Amino acid sequence: MEFDQRIAFTIFLVTFLGFFLSASQSYTFYVGGRDGWVLKPKEDYNQWAGRNRFQINDTLIFRYKKGYDDVLEVDKDDYYNCNKENPFLALKDGESVFKFNRSGPFFFISGHADNCQKGQRLIIVVLHPRGNPTDAPSPVAANPPSPSPSPSPAPIFAPTPSPIKPNTPPPAAASPPSPVIVQPFAPAPSPSAASIAFGGLIGSLLGISFFLVIFAFGY
């Protein structure tokens, strides 16, 4: 009986840790900040969206006066035409919550009167999931040295007799060619402190879970 209880506790703990790790990667954004979802915010909604990065599982919160405004999720054409007739979703409760379940663009407009035509609309572009290899910085390639041009053969002229001058100094020796310096490869960028700290947290939590599993099965 005690063994079964330990197994059940271990499963619960591992499930909780998995939920914690997934939830810790999502963020909540209040559209318009303190202004909320209004006709004339202090900052244009699309400028506000351009300053932020949105990921799958992030959440938008629209705050507005219930009964005097609403939020419609529409397609691209309806967004630019301010068409309110065929929305994917209509939010009207005064503090509407919208969670991103995919990557790509999302289009929102106000369904109240002609607010959309006056600028109360928003485009959000959700990035691909975190950890996508395409998000990693590209390695910096060293610039290869350019090949030195080969010396052209000197033209051959017929010798012209000249008077012999006494004590003529010998011609100066040609200076040796300068060595070609090859630029080394630039080192790859080191991971940020935040990435290292988050990785350490994940490793610690998984280590604790593994220890508890071993402890439960060992007894």
From TrEMBL:
> What GO terms fall under cellular component here?
plasma membrane; side of membrane
Q: What is its main location?
A: membrane
Membrane topology per the entry is: Lipid-anchor; GPI-anchor
Q: Which InterPro entries match?
A: Cupredoxin, ENL_dom, Phytocyanin-like, Phytocyanin_dom
- Gene Ontology molecular function, alphabetical: electron transfer activity
Family indicated by similarity:
Belongs to the early nodulin-like (ENODL) family.
Protein name per UniProt: Early nodulin-like protein 3
Which species is the source of this protein? Coffea arabica
Lineage, top ranks: Eukaryota, Viridiplantae, Streptophyta, Embryophyta, Tracheophyta
